[in-house]
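Table S2 (continued). Query chain:
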Amino acid sequence: MIDVRLLRTDPGLVRASLERRGAKVDLDHLIELDSRYRALLQEVEAARAEQNAAGKRIAEARGPGKSQAIAEMKRLSDRLKQLEAELAEIRSELDHALIEVPNLVHPDAPDGFGDESNRLVSTVGSPPVFDFTPKDHMDIGEGLGIIDTERAAKVSGSRFAYLLGPAVLLEFALVRMAMDRLMPDGFVPVIPPVLVRAEAMFGTGFFPTDEAQVYRCADDDLYLAGTAEVPIASMHAREMLPADRMPRRYVGYSTCFRREAGTYGRDTRGIIRVHQFDKAEMFSFCFPEDSDNEHQRLLAHEEGIWQALEIPYRVLEICAGDLAAPNYRKFDIEAWLPGTGRWLEVTSCSNDIDYQARRLQIRTKRDSGTELVHTLNGTAVAVGRAIVALLENHQQADGSVRIPEALQPYTGFDVIGPP
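Corresponding output:
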C-alpha cells in the first residue's frame, strides 16, 4: 500500500512506477476517489461543528426558542448521519482501490519484463569441470538413498519428498551454519508460527495478489505461510519500535508451503519446486534512510553463504515488470547446476520500503516525530535448493558427494558415500 499523499503531491511518480511495472491500475479514478473523500471529510467536519454549536444553543435556549433549537439539532444530526455514511462508503472504496496499487519502483531497477530484462550484477566462481558425465540431483540423491520422491508421492501426492539419513544432517548443517554467520551481525534466531491469519498475509502484501499460491485451513480460517517473512513481519504489527533498538534483525527458520499454482510442468522432477520446503529467512526493520544500505547488507550475507558452500553463482537485479507488488527493489542469486546445465534461483533479497509497514502499522519514534519503518527480507538458505546445488556441484565419479569445508564442522562428515 503506497502513501496516499503521493497521489496528491506527486501523481507523476506513481504513474511512472505503474507504467514500469505494466500494472493495470486506474490511477485517475483513484485520484478522483481521494479528492471526493477529502471534500466529503471537510463537509463531515463542518457538520459536526454545526452540531456542536447547535447543542450549545439548546443548552442556552428558553421557551419556544428551545423547541426550534431541538428541531434544528435533529435536522443537523440526520444530515451528519447521511454524510458519515457516504464518507464511510467512499473510504471503503478508496481503501480497496489503494490495495490494488503495488509499491513504487527503485529508480535504478532495470526496466522491462521477463528474465531477459533482469540485470546481471556479478558472476562469482566458475562451473566445475568433471572427467565424467555429471548427474542431476535426483540421480545422485536416489543413488545415495537420501531423497525419495516416489514414496512421498504415495503418501502425499506429487511435489513432495522424503529426505533421509545424511541429507537430514545436511539440512540442519546448512541452517546452523547460516545462523552462526548471521547472529554476530545482530540477527535474532526465530522459529515462528507457520499458520497465520489473513491479516498477516494481507499486511505483508501476499494478499490479494498471491492468494492462489496459499494453502488455506478453512475450518480455522488460517493460512499456511509460504515464507517466514509473513509471521516475522507481522510479529510487530501495530507496534511502535524503539528507535534505540533499530535496526531490528531476525533470521527465521520455518517449514514453508506453496501450492505452486500455474507452474505445472516446471521443475517437476526432484526437490526444486515442491509444495513443502524448509528455509531460513532474514528479515530487517530499519529507518527509512538506511534501507538501501540494509538491502546491500542482506545481499552480502547471501553471497557469503554461497561462497562458503563453494557453489558458482550469479547475482541478478530483477526488472521492474517482474517485481512482486510489495517490492521496491529485488536481487536474486542463481546457482549453477552442472547436472542440468542451467542456473537455478536459490535466494531472493527484497527492499519493500514502507509498503508492508503501512499495512501492518509498524512505526518508530524519533525526535523528528513518528514514522513508518522500512522492511526488508532475504533468503539465508532455502534448504532444498541448496541441497540440489551441493549434490550437483560436489558430486564425484564414484557417486559420492564431497561436503564443503565450511559445512564439515556441522555435518560431522566430509563426504556422503554410497549406502
